[in-house]
Structures are given as C-alpha cells and as structure tokens.
Amino acid sequence: MDTFNTPLDLVRTRPVEVPNVCIRKDRLTVAVQWFQENFDGEVLYAVKANPSPWVIDSLYAAGQRWFDVASLNEIRLIADRCPGATMAFLHPVKSRAAIRAAYHDHGVRIFALDCEDELDKIVAETGGADDLILIVRLGVSNAGSVLPLAGKFGASTFDAPALIEKARHAAFELGVSFHVGSQCMDPMAYRQAMLEASRLIVRAGVTVDIVDVGGGFPSIYPGLTPPPLQNYIEVIEETFEEMMVLENADLWCEPGRALVAESASVLTRVELRKGDALYLNDGAYGMLFDATHAKWPFPMRVFRADGQLNGEVSPFRLFGPTCDSIDSMPGPYDLPADIREGDVIEIGMLGAYGEAMATRFNGFGEYETADMRDFPWQSLYVSNPQQIQNQSADIVAFPRTRRRRERMRRR
Q: Which pTM does this prediction carry?
C-alpha cells in the first residue's frame, strides 16, 4: 500500500481511474483508546460499520479484543484475524446453521435474541449448553437519533418481562440490550432507554448480569455536531448505578460509527460535467450509499492535479457511474465553480458504512487504497485537526484510569 502526506500528493502522482480509499489508521487507534480509557466496561466493536481487513487489523493492534458480529462471515473474519478475541453474536435473528457453527466451531458463547422462538433455537442448536451468555434485546425509543433503527428488532414492553424471565433459566449469564438509533445526538436517550430496561427487569423478577447500551455513538459531520462523547459516558455510567441489576453487573457498549468514521475518505474523479451536474466514478452503489439514500452530509474538498481552482463556489448535483437513474445525489453541493473533468473530489468521514456498503453493480466497485498522514476533518477526539497531523497515535484525549468491576458469574 502506498503512503502519501496528503490526498493531493496522490492526485499528482497517479490518475484516479478508480475511486481511491484514503485510510488514516492512527484515527482508529485514537478512537478505540479513548473508549477503552473512558468507558467503564467492555467495548465491543460493531464489525458491520467497517469489516475491512485494515480496520480489523488496526483495531486489534490497538488492543481491541471484543467484537459485535452479526453473521457467520463476520465471525470467520474475526476468528481468522484476531486470535483470542471475544465475539458476541448480537444479531437478534440467526439461522440454525449459523448458531451451530458459531458455538461449536468458533467458541462463541454470547447470543442475542428478542423473542421466545429465537431463544428456543439458540438452546436447541447449542445442545442446551450451560455456558450461554444470552442478551435480550429490548425495543426502545429512537427519538434522539438522526437515523432511527426502531421497528425491526427489540422485544416490546408487553413481551419483554416474560422473555427476560424465560431467558434467565437458560442462561449462565443474562443481559439486556437496546439500540437508541444511529448518530444519536442526545445523551439522555441512553438514560431513558436504560431506565426503561430497568423497569422491565423488575417486572421480570430476575437478576441480570449485563447491561449492553448498544451503539448509536455519533461522529461529527457538516451540520451534525453532537455533544462531547464524555457527556454520553457520564450519562450512561450515572444511570447504570441506578439500574436494578446485580451490584457486580457488567456494562457493555457497541460503538461502530464513533470508532471508524474518521478513519477513511474516498477520492472520486469527475468524469463529465454537464452544467451543474457532475458525473463521478463512485456513487450510490459504492461508498456513497449513505450520501444518496440517507441524505447524509459529508465534508468535501476538490483537488486539481495540474493547477489551482478558483475560490468561487456554485451548487452542483452529483451522479454516480452506474446506468441506474437512482444513482444520484441532488444536493445541492457547494463546490468550486470552475470544477471540470479530471478534477478529484475527496469526500470525508466515510470510515463508517462506506466500504461496507459498496457493491459491484454494473461492473463498478473496484477501489485502490492508500495510507494518508494528514487529517483535515473535525474530530470527536481532538479539538483542532492541525494538532494531530503527523502525531503518533498514542496521544489520546481525556485519558483516565479505567475502573474494572470484579466479576462474579451467577445464574
């Protein structure tokens, strides 16, 4: 893999015939170390956010050992690249074959569920194992999130108490989890969900060993600046102390976006300009899925290999390379008014759900990867991006001594 100081150096060195993923591994290290130092519990990386080998390897090298996996392929990925890692199979709906392989072939002991039928499948396919760690996923409000995820998974307020009680009898350790929605902008959403989980636990009348607050931790995008991450941690830890769980219960979280969003961008070339329409070599079926379908705002800047762009900007529409008419991003996007064929747009903050969502539709979807030393975007972890350029990745914001609860496994 080639290394460049900045994307402009790449643009001046080689043509961007296919989109280029610009990776910044040090941002992964900074992010995971921040969570490890500041979150008083287990941090599980949500592999779905970006399963690229360079991401998994970098997180593992930075000390990440717990992973939230959602499929047998993700389990195999972690098993192959991360010796000794703990995997939690937290998709609430799994095939019987996947449950069997996870338990018997890969040593997975942590399984999520949100209904009695799924619980019965897990018990049956693991042979009634007595070492299961079962996590009951609860349905909670997603009112504080930019991208709500409610509706598909999560036991209802009506069904949850009986499910929690039944799972307690099958579990060596029992936990509850929820998801407040992606890009949660309100730390108090975690408090509301945790207190609702506590009420359901009381109604179930059983002990609970684990509280998993899920994902939803945000990143910074244009027009989407969340509160400091420390605010989320403080709310979660304060509320955890109020919950009706075992005194030595464990606290878990599943960050995805917050760990990897800052770590990658994409360079996409303008293949044609028609007035205010720019046709690019990446789009909705590639790394720009969220920009198209979720209307997600991403930072952008433009490079020209053989000269300078003027300072004026104009609104533009963007179109991807496929022949599908929905491969379009109407924007408008304010870009240099003199942008032309051959110019390269860098679209930042694509470490989360960029490469993970790319397809091979229409024969496109090929990428080259390059390592970058710069970091031009806003960061959750360092207030001024200039402070982190060319710095070693062991500089972490807001370090503190991490507390560990003494573990006592109970039925």
A: 0.91
